[in-house]
Design goal:
The complex is a heterodimer.
Chain A lengths: L3 H14 L4 E7 L5 H13 L5 E4 L10 H11 L5 H13 L6 E4 L2 H7 L1 H11 L3 E3 L5 H13 L3 E6 L5 H10 L4 E4 L15 H11 L4 E4 L5 H7 L5 E4 L1 H9 L4 H17 L4
Parallel strand pairs in A: 1-2, 1-8, 2-3, 3-4, 4-5, 5-6, 6-7, 7-8
Helix pairs in contact in A: 2-12, 4-6, 11-12
Chain B lengths: L8 E2 L2 E5 L5 H15 L2 H15 L5 E3 L1 H6 L5 E6 L9 H14 L4 E6 L3 H13 L2 E7 H6 L1 H9 L3 E5 L6 H15 L3 E4 L9 H9 L1 H14 L5 E5 L4 H7 L9 E9 L10 H4 L1 E5 L1 E6 L24 H9 L2 E7 H15 L5 H13 L8 E6 L7 H10 L4
Classes of the chains: A alpha/beta, B alpha/beta.
The structure holds pyridoxal-5'-phosphate.
The site of pyridoxal-5'-phosphate (PLP) has 21 residues of chain B, from helix 5, helix 11 and helix 15.
Amino acid sequence: MRNGAQAVEEAIRKANERGEAALIPFIEGADPSLEVTAELLWALEEAGADVIELGFPFSDPLADGPTIQEAAQRALKNRPTLSDFLAMVENLRRKGFKTPIVIMGYLNPFYRFGLENFAKQAQKAGLNGAIIPDLPLEEAKPWLKIAHRYQLAAVMLAAPTTPPERLARIAQNSSGFLYYVSVTGITGARNKLPEDLALKLDLARELSPVPVGVGFGISRPEQVAHLANFADAIVVGSAIVKIIAAHLKKPASLVKAVRDFVVELKAATKR
Amino acid sequence: MALPDKRGHFGPFGGRYVPETLMPALFELEEAYRRFKRDRTFKKELDFYLKTYVGRPTPLYPARKLAATLGGHLKIYLKREDLTHTGAHKINNTLGQVLLAQKMGKKRIIAETGAGQHGVATATAAALVGLECVVYMGAKDTVRQEMNVFRMELLGAKVVPVYSGTQTLKDAINEAIRDWVTNVETTHYVIGSVVGPHPYPMMVRDFQSVIGRETRRQILKSEGRLPDILIACVGGGSNAMGFFFPFVNDQSVQMIGVEAAGAGLDTDKHSATLTVGEPGVLHGMLTYLLQDQVGQIKGAHSVAPGLDYPGVGPEHAFFKETGRATYVAVDDQEALAAFRLLSETEGIIPALESAHAVAYLVKIAPKLPPNTIVVVNLSGRGDKDVAAVREYLKGKGDA
Ligand SMILES: Cc1ncc(COP(=O)(O)O)c(C=O)c1O
C-alpha cells in the first residue's frame, strides 16, 4: 500500500525541485454539494495543485473566519459524513486521481468516528492524512501513533505565538509537512501579511525536518509569488471558497472559475 | 490525588483542545494563576472585594417554611448566592479573573454570555478594575435578553451580537475564542463557567469554591455536622462545582447536579448533557456533549437561559464517571412550579436556573428519611426572569 504521509512530502519536494513552491488549495467539502466537490477536486488536480486540503465541515469552526464559517454552514445542510467523504476519495482514486489529499477538520467528528477506525478507512480509501486544528501537540499523542501506524500524514500546526523550541518539537512530530499559520488570528483572506513572516518562515524551515507550508490569509497571486521564496508550500483557502460562494447561483461556471484562479496561483509559485 | 493533572485532565476528560495560537497563552495564564493563587496580596485584594463589594459571605438560610411544605421531616438550607452583587454566583469568578488579568498586564477583557448574567458580571468587574470590556452574545439572545444588553452597556461594555451558527451561547463562545486567537497578546478571555481548555475548569472552580467553603463552615456551625445532600443546578457547572468541591473528600456528603430537561428528554429541546449526552470535544475540552451521530453539536434548550449549553465542565463528566456525584434532570414545568413555590413559601424569587435545583428537592423530598440535612445552592435571583415567566404563564392562561 502507498505511504500516504510520504506521498504528501514527496509532492512538495518535487515541486521544490522544479523551482516552485508547492500549491495547496483548500476547499470545504460538500459545499455546495459532494458531487460538486468531486468535480472541484478534478479541477484542482488539472490546475496544478500539488496537494489538496479538503475541509470536513463542523458546526463550531472556532478557528475560522466568516468565509469558511459560511461554507461550513452551507455544507452542513447536506448532512455530510466522514464515510461519504472517504467513499468519494476512494472513488476518485479508482478513477486515477493522483494528487495527495489531506482532510482538514475539527476533532469531534473524527473522535466520534473513532480515530483508529478513521485512519484504517482513510488508508484504504487513499486519503493521505489529516490536519486537525484543535488538536495541539499536548493532546495529539494518540492520534500521532495511529497516523503513524496507518502511514497517514498527521500535519501539525505552528503559529506566530509558538516559541522556537516548541516549534521544533511540533515539527518533529509532524508528518507530510508542518503547517505554519501566517497570522495571529483566524482563517480569512487578508490584504496584508505580517512583516516578519519571511523571517519566521526561515526559522521554521531551519527547525523543521519536514517541509513547511504557510497558510491563513493568503489570497492573491502576488502574495503567493512573494512567499514562494520563503515557504516549501503555500495554502490558499478562503480566497477559493469565496469564489465558490460567488458562483452558487451560476453553477455552470463555478468549477471553471475555481480552476482559472488556481492556475493563476500555481503560476505564481515559480521562484 | 489532586486533579486536574499537569495537562488539565480529569481522568479522560478536560485537556486543551485549542488552536496552537492559543497554547502559549494558556501556559502563560496557568503560570500566572498558580503564582497569584499563592500570593498573599492578591488573595487579600480579592477577599476585600468579595467582602465589601460582592457582599460575602452570603447567608446560609434555614428554609423552614419550605421544609414544612415538603412534609416537615427535612432540614433544608439555602445557600444565598442570589444575594450577591449582580444577583448570581457569576461575580465570584469574574472578579477573580479580571483582577488576575489586571495583574498580568492585560488591557482588554472579553467574555461570552448567554442570558447575559455572566456578561453583566464581567462588565461589572471590568468597570470596577478599569479595563476595556467586550461581550459576545448570540444575536437571538440579545433580543431575548434586551435588558441585560442595556445593563452591560451602562457598565461601559461593548456588546457584540453573534450571527453565526445557532446564534446562541455556544456560538458566542466560538466568537469570543476567535477574538482571543486574534488579540491574544493584549486580551484576557473571561470564561463564564467551569468549561473550556485547561486551566479554566480548574481556575473557575477555585474561584467559585468560596461557595462551598462558606457553606461547610456555616452548616458545621448551625448543625454541628456535615450535610447529607447538596443540590445545585448544572449548566456549564460552575455554581455546582464551587458548591461541591470543598466537600469532595467528605464521602458521606451526597452531591446531586440538576440539568435542564427542557421540554422533555425524549424531545430535541433540552440541555441534559450529562444525563443523555455522549463524550466529545468542544470549546477546548473533552467532555459530555449534545451531538448527533456524526459529531456535529446540537442546539440546547431550557426555560432557564443560563442552562442552555450543549456541553458541561469536564470535572462533572469525571464525577459522573466515578460516581462521586449524581446527575439528574428536571423539565421546564417542574422548574416553573418550583419557581412559584419558593416565591410563595419563602418570599424568595429564585433564578430559573436555581429553580431546577429546588424542583429536584421537591421531587425527592417524600422519599428522604427524617432529619436529612439538604443544602440547595440558590445560584441566583429571579429578577431577570420575571418578565419571561409572566409571558409563559400568560400563554398557559395561568396568570
Ligand atoms: C443564576 C444562574 N445559575 C446557574 C447558571 C448556570 O451556570 P453554571 O452551571 O456554570 O453555574 C447561570 C448561568 O448563567 C445563572 O445565571
